[in-house]
UniProtKB/TrEMBL annotation:
Membrane keyword on record: no
A GO molecular-function annotation: ubiquitin protein ligase activity
Protein name: U-box domain-containing protein
Protein origin, superkingdom: Eukaryota
Annotated metabolic or biological route of this protein: Protein modification; protein ubiquitination
GO BP of this protein: defense response; protein ubiquitination
InterPro entries: ARM-like, ARM-type_fold, ARM_PUB, PUB22/23/24-like, RING-Ubox_PUB, Ubox_domain, Znf_RING/FYVE/PHD
Catalytic activity: S-ubiquitinyl-[E2 ubiquitin-conjugating enzyme]-L-cysteine + [acceptor protein]-L-lysine = [E2 ubiquitin-conjugating enzyme]-L-cysteine + N(6)-ubiquitinyl-[acceptor protein]-L-lysine
Species for this entry: Quillaja saponaria (Soap bark tree)
């Protein structure tokens, strides 16, 4: 229960002093400002971040923007939530306090000092990683201290076996922050660094493998040079390692997300697509398509459409019995982008294979396409649907709308 609507709908009135004066919702992390007024942390931080310098309630100047946690009020709110649990109200969790900038600087100094023992640096990395996990605000604070530059040096340092764990923990922390283009280029242009990351893709620790794939994706996506992107994509071990993450039965949501992001980034390089097909990516994507979350499913479908643009890719996807039925099924089910990519892949498949045409008709694609062209989907998706309707016109069963006198789509929906 994040706000006031749920309890009000349930007939439970939120006490006035439990509401944030700005959002009017139940406070989850009450903090007090210099004027003595209490607000929910997220609301007052948003107020100050937009340039406001006065207290929203008293209009008095905020002489100090320090936010002091109101622990007493938070505990009262939590007790109230527990007392009203029978009405469907969940207890708000105890919020974690924002990282102290001084603590962050101290930890980074410990990490960057090569004179410190590896175990002390490792402990500092783990503490910093814990802070980064707590909130976006903490990650922004940590990133503002050139953290990526420090961590890149550690990740690719060769200090001996005793520092391997430090390297791997630093990698796990590094992929939590965006890289600048110059940092991406510094990795992409160093074959030794790329080779090291390709080796980590086959590490005994699955988390290390996933983090390596995450850094590879960041570097490929953040490098503008086509030559450098091609140089990375041409390393067979990288493609094999990324595909193995996707097909691995122990893959969890984050692993699937990173795996498909990395695969899509690699397949944007044209030279990589044939290698991806040869590595068996078609079966992997179709078998795991139902396991992806929304954004990841979009990337998976975009990758399928990319690979269907080459003959070998079309053949590989057409050979999988579930490809066409799944692509037909996702139309209008996930998002406009997903629908567009699915329609594009189907257009390529049906243009290349009579069997795919029959499979599409058997999967009731006609209904899906008619709904698509009348929907609010993208114009490109509608255009692909119209092309599919025209392409499949002669494949409809004799008793279908496609071959009846009532089928008005040939002139109205497909104006060619």
């Amino acid at each position: 229960m994040r706000g006031s609507l749920e309890p009000l709908d349930l007939g439970v009135q939120i006490p006035y002093h439990f509401r944030c004066p700005i959002s009017l919702e139940l406070m989850r992390d009450p903090v007090t400002v210099s004027t003595g007024q209490t607000y929910d942390r997220a609301s007052i931080e948003a107020w100050v971040s937009t340039g406001n310098t006065t207290c929203p309630v008293t209009r008095a100047p905020l002489t100090d923007v320090t936010l002091i946690p109101n622990h007493t009020l938070r505990r009262l709110i939590q007790e109230w939530c527990v007392a009203n649990r029978s009405s469907g109200i969940e207890r708000i969790p105890t919020p974690k306090q924002p990282a102290d900038p001084a603590v962050v600087r101290s930890l980074l100094n410990q990490i960057s000092s090569e004179s410190n023992q590896p175990q002390y640096r490792l402990s500092a990395v783990r503490r910093l990683r814990g802070l980064a996990r707590d909130s976006d605000k903490n990650r922004f604070l940590i990133a503002s201290h050139n953290t990526s530059e420090i961590l890149l040096d550690i990740v690719f340092s060769n200090s001996g076996s005793e520092s391997f764990e430090l390297n791997h923990e630093s990698l796990a922390l590094l992929v939590m922050f965006p890289l600048t283009e110059s940092e991406c280029v510094s990795v992409a242009s160093d074959l030794n660094r790329i080779s090291y990351l390709s080796q980590l893709l086959f590490h005994s620790s699955f988390e290390v493998r996933v983090n390596s794939a995450a850094l590879i994706e960041m570097v490929v996506a953040g490098t503008r040079s086509p030559e450098l992107r091609a140089q990375i994509s041409n390393i067979d071990e990288i493609l094999e390692g990324v595909i193995d993450i996707l097909k691995n039965p122990i893959s969890y949501p984050r692993a699937l997300k990173i795996g498909i992001k990395a695969l899509f980034a690699l397949c944007l390089v044209k030279q990589t697509r044939q290698k991806a097909v040869s590595a068996g990516v078609a079966d992997t994507l179709i078998d795991r398509l139902a396991d992806f979350e929304k954004c990841d499913a979009e990337r998976a479908l975009a990758t399928i459409e990319l690979l269907c643009r080459i003959p070998s890719g079309c053949a590989a996807f057409a050979a999988h019995a579930l490809t066409v039925p799944l692509l037909v099924k996702v139309i209008l089910k996930i998002s406009d982008r997903a629908t567009e990519y699915a329609a594009g892949a189907l257009l390529s498949l049906c243009s290349a294979s009579e069997q795919c045409k029959m499979d599409a008709v058997a999967a009731c694609i006609l209904t899906q396409l008619l709904l698509l062209v009348q929907s609010d989907c993208t114009e490109r998706a509608k255009r692909k649907a119209q092309l599919l309707l025209k392409l499949l016109r002669d494949s409809w069963p004799e008793d279908s709308i496609g071959n009846s006198d009532d089928f008005g789509c040939s002139e109205v929906v497909v104006p060619f």
